[in-house]
Structures are given as structure tokens and as C-alpha cells.
Design the sequence.
């Protein structure tokens, strides 16, 4: 990963607007922001960006096939991007996680992409298994070196490679890399098991969504567990039942999982089975419903004391934002129809295109439309192992309302 000889290094100049954005710390440079280059760039080149006064501005990964052309690694004074630089960056990243988790939590994020200074790369731990996910092909030319560096600092039984859908074909044809490929260790033979605050879960690290589990909702799952004692809980868009299992451990009398995916519901069933040694989990009635959550909420009359609404992202693009906000408000209106007096609504969004302020206001509008008095208990954003260092990284938000 060392820089090329000076006369062969890729040198770029940007528009004045893009130069200002990069100087302000934003980690992305789009293709239409590049004014000039000294040569055609190759995948994985270290592109050096110079400002209008021909002074060093930044250096980053170059991807000639992506509209997001450069992902910034470093700004400020010039530094060699060599082995020592990478080791220092990895050590700094791991140090940010020190003290965050006790021995009863073995599933968490070790590297969170751009916000940790590793643009387009995520590393998650699930017990003795590491999952490395790439969102840019720029890492592929030096992947072996990156894996060796990680394993030196984070020994593991295995390391699994996951690839964003948009780079899978290139990875296969040019680099012989596959989504779900095991780069170190042996095939786990199925999901791997890890702990989160003492709750046992399975993670489908080879083929599951993201890296196999939604680690980012850890803090919200714990909050739900603390609210659930003696309550009936509805978990809409339940996926593998994480909120439900915390609620059961927290003393919920019954939990209902609603998800359109039979595969997700099967995973929820297995997660409950993993925790049958816990008395509260064993005592809690667990119902699984395969259905479209919007339709199920609209068609039934059962009442619950806690209603959890955690849908997939409703806005993939900026143009989707108005429809998404309408969708979140409609969903909350439906959820409130199922909420018993004195109940708690827990609503989440994982859409980066929908800002926290707009999302929270959409939920509040639904609450006001419902006509009941309510108290806003709290709002939560990203957990500490998922830092959000720039606006586009701010995707997760959750609001708690008591009626």
C-alpha cells in the first residue's frame, strides 16, 4: 500500500467547491468534481489531491468505475501511506473500542468505514469469527495485505469476506473473490453464535444481511429489555427477533414477531432456543407471524403494551425522502392503533436519506394525529462502535414515546 514513485503517482485537482468540502473533512470525492489528472487512474491507486496553490490537500483510494471516485484516507500534512501508517491507524481504531464491552458481549463493530478512517470497509466481530465487508472495489488489489494486518492485531478462528452487491462481479472476474468467501480459517458449517449483553444470538456470516446481524441496534435492544417487564410486546419487521428476545429476558409476558420472511422468523425461533436457560425467556409466550407488517397492523385489533417499529430503509435515494417520511408517519399511525393505554411506542429509521429531526417529527405528527397525550421518553442515535463522522453516515435513529 505504499505510494508509487513520485513521477508515477496519480495527481488530481478538484473543483473549488469539492476542494473546500475535502478540506472540511468530508471523505468522498465524486467523479464530476475532478478537474484534472496527470494520468488515467487505476483501481486501488493512491490518488493525491493538490489544491489550487499546488499544495497537498488529501490522499485516498481511487476507483475509476465508481461515481464516488476517491475515498479519502488522509488530509493535512503529507504522510507516506505505508505499513507503519496502516498499523497506527488500526491501533487507533481498536483503541476506540477499548472498555466499551464486557465479557458478556462478543459481537460488535471493530471498524466502521469512513467514520473510523477506513473508507468503504467494515469489520465486525462475532465471537471468534471476523467478518470483513467491502463497499468499494478499491480495497481488492491489496486485500491479502489488509487481512494479514487485521489478523496480526485481532486474532480469530476465521475471517469471512462479504462484498457489496455492486462490486461482486468485478471481484469474481478480476480478483477471484466471492461474497461469503472464507479468507482465514474453516467453514463454520452454518450460523455462528455470539453474545450480546449476555443474550445469545446466531449470525449468518456467510449469506446473511449486512455482515450477518444488525449489531447497530444493541443499545436500543437493551432499552426495550428494560421497558418490557410485565408487558405484551409487538415487534414489527422483527427480522431475527433481537428486540423480542431482549423483551422476553426483561420479563415480557408475551412477544409477537411479525415479518414477511419465513427465513427471518426461523432465525428468531432459533435465537429463542439458544436462550432457554434463561427463566424469563422460557416463561414468555413467543408468537411468530409471517405477514407484511403494514398489512398486518392495518387488519388486526390485538393490543400491545410496547409496539416496536423497525422497518428496512424506506428511502434509498434523496428523491425517496418525501415518500419515506409519509411512510414512517403512516406506519406509526398504524402502530398506535395497536398500542394499549399506557403503552410505549418505539420507532426506528435506518434511512440515511431521512434526517433524524425530520424522522422524529414524522413520528410526533402520527402521535398527535392519534389524539392521545404522550410523553417523549428519549431519542437515540448511533452506538459508540458505529460512529457517524459525516452527514451521509448518520442513518440510525430511534424515538420512544409513552402514551
Sequence:
Amino acid at each position: 500500500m505504499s505510494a508509487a514513485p513520485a513521477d508515477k503517482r496519480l495527481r488530481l485537482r478538484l473543483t473549488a467547491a469539492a476542494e473546500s468540502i475535502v478540506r472540511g473533512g468530508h471523505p468522498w470525492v465524486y467523479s464530476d468534481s475532478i478537474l484534472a489528472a496527470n494520468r488515467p487512474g487505476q483501481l486501488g491507486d493512491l490518488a493525491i489531491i493538490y489544491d489550487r496553490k499546488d499544495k497537498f490537500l488529501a490522499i485516498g483510494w481511487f476507483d475509476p468505475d465508481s461515481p464516488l471516485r476517491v475515498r479519502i484516507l488522509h488530509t493535512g500534512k503529507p504522510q507516506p501511506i505505508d505499513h507503519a501508517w496502516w498499523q497506527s491507524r488500526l491501533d487507533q481504531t481498536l483503541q476506540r473500542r477499548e472498555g466499551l464491552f464486557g465479557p458478556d458481549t462478543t459481537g460488535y463493530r471493530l471498524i466502521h468505514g469512513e467514520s473510523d478512517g477506513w473508507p468503504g470497509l467494515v469489520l465486525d466481530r462475532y465471537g471468534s469469527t471476523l467478518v470483513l465487508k467491502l463497499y468499494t472495489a478499491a480495497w481488492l488489489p491489496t486485500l491479502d495485505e489488509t487481512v494479514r494486518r487485521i489478523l496480526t492485531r485481532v486474532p480469530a478462528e476465521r475471517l469471512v469476506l462479504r462484498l457489496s452487491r455492486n462490486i461482486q462481479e468485478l471481484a469474481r472476474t478480476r480478483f477471484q473473490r466471492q461474497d461469503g468467501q472464507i479468507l482465514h480459517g474453516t467453514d463454520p458449517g452454518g450460523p455462528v453464535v455470539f453474545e450480546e449483553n449476555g443474550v445469545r444470538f446466531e449470525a449468518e456470516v456467510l449469506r446473511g444481511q449486512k455482515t450477518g446481524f444488525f449489531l447497530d441496534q444493541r443499545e436500543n435492544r437493551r432499552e426495550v429489555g428494560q421497558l418490557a417487564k410485565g408487558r405484551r410486546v409487538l415487534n414489527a419487521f422483527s427480522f431475527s427477533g433481537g428486540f423480542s428476545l431482549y423483551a422476553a429476558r426483561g420479563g415480557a409476558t408475551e412477544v409477537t414477531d411479525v415479518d414477511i420472511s419465513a427465513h427471518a422468523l426461523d432465525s428468531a425461533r432459533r435465537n429463542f432456543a439458544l436462550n432457554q436457560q434463561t427463566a424469563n425467556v422460557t416463561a414468555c409466550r413467543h408468537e411468530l407471524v409471517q405477514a407484511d407488517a403494514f398489512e398486518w397492523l392495518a387488519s388486526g385489533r390485538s393490543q400491545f403494551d410496547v409496539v416496536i417499529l423497525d422497518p428496512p430503509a424506506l428511502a434509498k435515494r434523496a428523491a425517496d425522502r418525501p415518500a419515506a417520511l409519509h411512510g414512517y408517519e403512516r406506519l406509526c399511525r398504524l402502530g398506535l392503533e395497536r398500542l394499549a393505554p399506557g403503552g410505549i411506542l418505539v420507532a426506528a429509521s435506518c434511512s440515511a436519506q431521512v434526517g433524524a429531526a425530520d424522522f422524529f417529527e414524522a413520528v410526533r405528527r402520527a402521535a398527535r394525529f392519534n389524539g392521545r397525550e404522550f410523553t417523549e421518553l428519549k431519542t437515540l442515535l448511533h452506538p459508540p462502535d458505529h460512529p457517524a463522522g459525516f452527514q451521509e453516515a448518520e442513518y440510525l435513529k430511534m424515538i420512544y414515546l409513552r402514551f
User: Anything to note?
Assistant: The longest strand covers residues 339-349. The chain is about 30% helix and 30% strand.
